[in-house]
Amino acid sequence: MTTFTDPPKAGFRLSQLIYDTRYRSITIQVIAVFLLAFGVYWLVNNTIQNLAALEKNFDFGFLSQPAGYDINQRLVEYTSQSTHGRAAFVGIGNTILIAVLGCALATVLGVIAGVLRLSKNWIVSRLMAVYVEGFRNVPLLLWIIAIFALMTEGMSQPRDFRVGGDASLVLFESTALTNRGIYIPAPAFENALGQVSIFGNVQWPAAQAVSLFGLFSLNLTLIAFLIAIGAGVFAARQVGSRMAASSTGKMLAASIVTFLGPMVVWYLFMGLFGQTSVSAVQMTLSWDYLLLIGLLVVGGIVSGMIKRRADSIQRDTGVRPTTWYLRLGVVLLPFLIALYVLGAHLQYPYLKGFNFTDGIHLRNSLIALLLALSLYTGAFIAEIVRAGILAISKGQSEAAFALGLRPNRTMNLVILPQAMRVIIPPLISQYLNLTKNSSLAIAVGYMDVRSTLGGITINQTGRELEGMLLLGAFYLIVSLVISAVMNVYNNRTQLKER
Amino acid sequence: MSDTHAQTVSYVRDTMLPQQAPPVTERGALKWVRENLFSGWLNILLTVVSLYVVYLVLSLILPWAFGGVWNAGSLTECREVLFSVYKGSHDGACWAVIEDRWLQLLFGFYPPELYWRPILAFVLLLVALAPVLFSDKVPGQMIWFTLAFPFIATWLIWGGSFWTPIFAAFGFIAAVIAYKVLIRVAGPIVANLGALIAALVWWFVLMAPINDGLHKMIGFSRFDSTISRLEGDIETLPQEVARLEAQGEDVAAQIADAVAAKDATLAGMIEIRVEEVAVSAQISPKRTALQQLDGVAENLVSLSEALAVQDSEAASPLISDVTSDLEDALNDVASATADPSEVAELMVANAASVDPSILADVDAMVSKSALTGPIEDLLANVQEVSATSAVADIADLQAETGIVIAALQTNIASLETILEKVVATNAAPLAAPQAQFLKDMKVLADLRNDATAITIDSFRLSSELSDKTNFLSQVQSLAEREAEIPVLEARAAELGADLTRSQRNMISTNQLPDDTPQDVTAAVGAYLDVKNRALGLAASVTDTYSELGRIGLKPIDSRQIGGFMLAVIIGVAGIALSLPLGILLALGRQSHLFFINSVSVAFIEVIRGVPLIVWLFTASLLLNYFLPPGSNFDLMLRVIIMVTLFASAYIAEVIRGGLAALPTGQYEGADSLGLSYWQSMQLIILPQAMKISIPGIVNTFIGLFKDTVLVVFIGLLDPIGLTNTIRADTDWNGVYWELFIFVGLLFFIFCFSMGRYSLHLEKKLQREHR
User: Fold this and answer.
1) A137 and B508: CB-CB below 8 Å?
2) Residue B634 to residue B645: CA distance in whole angstroms
3) What is the C-alpha to C-alpha distance for residues B159 and B170, in angstroms, rounded to an integer?
4) Quick check: A46 and B629 CB within 8 A?
């Protein structure tokens, strides 16, 4: 005789959707999906109506039209006859240039200021405190325009550099500080190897339709796009497995890599929006620099091999062979020989007519933006570095001394690795901020991507919606890439506990 | 044996020696300096370098800042004052621009007679913040004032009828009432939904008609009295304006007189200083010539080297350099300077009494030909050398050059002594005009203040007059316009009878498909035209009624708000509105519900990944696309919406940090008590998480407050935008640093004190958590 009975199997009642925790979450999410879908529909519908009322459409074709404006600072060839897409590409290059230079300079300034702020020297630490507080508490924009005013109002005019004028070149007669910018010597090669063109004359197939037995037609571009999406999904899975962050972060990164990557590829190479050709990314590189960089890289690899060999000898015999001259030699010697063979020398700027010629011209806008961004971000980095060093307890260095480690090895092997773990994540987020703040270039007329794609192009073509979307997508991709790198680093340096 | 040993010792000290003072180097300030500033070679180097840097910066800034000019009407006048008190035009700050424009930098173009409104709002803001920032020192009931503050502040700044903010606040009260009623009959979900619906219905359906109705009612009752009041005002105001204008002309004449007097004093000073100018004019061309001769000497050295190895290729450009340098130097000395005897004549002619010792000095100087002669010889010799290319001749040339340089140096030195003496002699006669000049400037400044006050008054009165005239005509035509509305509506209904519903809802004929027949397009166009006219008329009638029936403050347009006030409004509104949104996003990001979680993450990452400036451009360029056709609202409100969304993503991350910092036990404890999700959040989790997050929230606020200056790029007048406006005025064209320093200091004071508060809070919280 059994007393056990199954619990009464009540049928599913509608009220369970609200009161039963098993179903409630589904109810809430379904409602949320509907609300969101409605919101999106509302926005899109409004946009469609408004666009129709203005007789506009949603079309990226403007990217392949001639831009018709000049860009005063460009890393790749560009003329006013180039396309808007090319102009955007030049702007992206300028943004990345200012971001990279700014991050490097800010790190140097920040580390120095952070370390000096901890100095026992009262005057030095006060001075650094004044620097940090002064820059952190005043808007960045004010610093940018103040430094720009200093550059344009406070420097001498090029004509003052003539014989008898009251200005002269500095740094061993090599650099001219003028109110039109700074002229520094440029590296030049007597026996230059010439240029190599990338994507120069390649013709990619435009969208073509292939008819299958007359039944239906297959779009080759569509197939290429599907392949690109497949590659994107594969890449996203690779990225996701490396990141090991929260599942949602992974999902977000994956979806962005999946969709934006192929979109960019498709636009650039397949002529998605009109007759866009690859000219948007076409560029020429100098064989000289490629050779020099290649030599350095190969030298580094060989040096690494020597180190590994030395390591294995040390493991086997206990004696480490002296290799520093070998390792230095394989890196430097070919490099120096190549420099000599290429006839490398510096080309000094000199006054010709009303302006300087030769040398590299760093414009006021670049200098002001760079200095302001790096001083401002440097103040934040100084605080991060200070916090990182203070975060390491004194017991760590005492324990290292007790083990008999000398001070510099204590620093390198014990303190720094731990401090870096504290410093790096906020440091990267400062790099992110610097990159985003570089859009303040608008204040000094530096031609970054916001000024080209998000400024002049929008004003000339009236394509606000498309232009702002592309601009936002660019910044978003940069941010996500940097934070993905940060996550990879974080995971590698995280304390492995249990 | 120890005891016997003790007896053998003849003397044992039984008291401690008195403590001696440490050596001089080990106590007091000297010890501190030794330990902190000069403890090692690196430290000594750092100290010396930083002391030098401090000296350099202060010696540059302090004389400039403290020797600045406060009384002046323009940059030119600033420079005149600096000239009159013996300073170069750039050796003193022109603080007069701040004196002239600081109110504008603070308030933008807000009407000056209404400044009390934003000031009162700001004071109330501090009161409202007290219960949030110093919850331990302020009674808890104050929080009700904090909740009411947004409505009070909005009303104070923008004006309007006093019941409008009460109506807006009533939406929340309606929500609470609906919740309280529904929670008794139905579950919490229904009650929450009911509260939401009640608030939305009140705001979007009921509020506007009730508000308009109230205005209309009061407007009706005041109709006749308003007309008679306006007519009375319109009669009296022109007299007032005329009186003020007459006053203004009077003051303008006085100002013109004062300017003339000031200019006369200045001219007198310039006359006294004319000898100084004459003597300095002798010095600078000679200095240039000296530099060129130095160049010649250097080139001659290279030339002799080149000739020694018979390198004619290198020699010929050197010779041409030397020749051109010598020609320049000769030109400088010969044509740009005068003979000493001429200088002496000039000085005698220009000054009433010249110190005889100065004249003696002038006489002692060599004549101009004594300087130009050797240079001419040198030039001739160089040309000879270029023909012969003999090394031996070069040595002669070098020696000659040395002699010429020495002569020039002596000449310059004696001129400098003379200049010093002239300046010293001029000091006494200049003292009286200097004092007179400064007095003139003070008088001028006072007069200008009077003029500004009169201009403001007369501007206010004349704009009041035009407003009232406009308003009177509107009120008088009110009945007529009201009667036209139904006529237009009837006509629209008639025209729209044959049109489809979607055609009637269009805002422009552009929306019709391209292949629409001509007559349909025309019909739709006619219908839309009449409909829009009816709508516009109805809106203008409502406007007239709301002005007629207003009991409260004068309405202010958003475009008039600017300066620091704008930064504070955007910053405070952004942070206050973004807090609730940020909390929701943070909870969403922590949520286990997949969809809600991913939407929150996507929102936060997208917002944070794109710079604020792009979002602001989106607000100014694109927000109109996303909103229903025809809706167009205030740019400032759009900016506040965008800034709120932006800040909410950052706040969400800060609060997420606070949520993550709570031990899991808190969540589990709440669950084990059987609390629902919202109960546990509201009672257990959020109070603790928010407390941890306050420093982060304050830091976000500092960042947001600094970022408010970016609105300058979309055309709002923030402090930095106003510095451009001020520079656009011809009076202040060229003023940079004074304005930057003023704006920077304002921001610094705000942000630094907020930063200190956040540090104080961090310390306080740290102790509690240990």
Assistant:
1) no
2) 17
3) 18
4) yes
Tell me which of A34, A41, A155, A163 to substitute to probe the interface with B (most B C-beta atoms closer than 10 Å).
A163
- Residue whose tokens read 């100065």: B358
pLDDT band at B90 (very low <50, low <70, confident <90, very high): low
> Is the pLDDT score of A276 beyond 70?
no
Contact flag B628-A47 (C-beta cutoff 8 Å): no
Between chains, do A472 and B288 touch, taking CB under 8 Å as contact?
no
B244 closest CA partner among B462, B464, B449, B446: B462
pTM confidence score = 0.81
**Cα–Cα distance for residue pair A348/A186, rounded to 1 Å:** 7
Encoded tokens for A336: 């120096």
Which token pair is A197? Answer: 């063109």
Tell me the backbone φ, ψ of residue A78, rounded to 5 degrees.
-160, 135
Beta bridge partners of A143: none
Please write the tens of the pLDDT for every residue from A422-435: 888 888 889 989 99
Residues B376-403 have pLDDT tens digits of: 888 788 777 777 666 667 777 788 888 8
Residues of A with Cβ-Cβ distance to B508 under 8 angstroms: 53
B601 touches chain A (CB under 8 A): yes
Q: What is the DSSP letter of A412?
A: I
Select the more confidently predicted residue: B486 or B496: B486
Chain A residues whose beta carbon lies within 8 Å of the beta carbon of residue B736: 146, 149, 153
Assess B513–A contact: CB distance below 8 Å, yes or no. Answer: no
What is the rounded distance in angstroms from the CA atom of residue A307 to the CA atom of residue A313? 10
B720 with A36: Cβ contact below 8 A: no
Whether residue A131 has pLDDT greater than 90: yes
What's phi and psi for B644, nearest 5 deg?
-65, -45
d(CA B414, CA B375): 20
Q: Which residue type, as a one-letter code, is found at position B246?
A: A
Average pLDDT (B302-318) is: 74
Backbone angles phi, psi at A346, to 5 degrees: -100, 140
User: Where is A186: in which H helix or E strand?
Assistant: strand A186-189
Cα angle value A396/A402/A404 (rounded, 5°): 110
Closest residue in A to B510 (Cα) is: A53
In angstroms, rounded to a whole number, what is the distance separating the alpha carbons of residues B138 and B136? 6
Answer whether A29 sits within 8 Å of B189, measured CB to CB: no
Angle value at C-alpha A397, between A392 and A402, nearest 5 degrees? 150
Q: Helical H runs in B611-634?
A: 612-617, 623-626
Q: In this structure, how many other beta carbons lie within 10 angstroms of the beta carbon of residue B616?
A: 22
Summarize pLDDT for A386-427 with one digit per residue, the tens: 888 888 888 888 999 999 998 778 888 888 888 888 888 888
Mapping DSSP onto H, E and C, the string for A103-165 reads HHHHHHHHHHHHHHHCCCCHHHHHHHHHHHHHHHCCCHHHHHHHHHHHHHHHCECHHHHCCCC
Residue-averaged pLDDT of chain A: 80
User: Which chain A residue has the Cα nearest residue B621?
Assistant: A464
pLDDT of residue A435: 92
Nearest CA in chain A to B54: A127
Contact across the interface for A442 and B594, Cβ inside 8 Å: no
- Tens of pLDDT, residue by residue over B96-150, are 899 888 999 999 889 888 899 999 999 999 999 888 888 778 887 888 888 889 9
Q: What is the pLDDT of residues B27-48, one digit of tens each?
A: 888 888 888 888 788 888 989 9
Size of chain A, expressed as the number of residues it contains: 498
β B552-553/B160-161 pair status:
antiparallel
Residue pair A188/A358 in contact by the 8 Å Cβ criterion: no
**Dist. CA A73–CA A91, nearest whole Å:** 9
- Please tell me the distance from the alpha carbon of residue B32 to that of residue B27, in angstroms, as a whole number: 8
**H runs (alpha helix) in A171-286:** 220-243, 247-270
The closest alpha carbon to B550, from B166, B214, B111, B120, belongs to B214
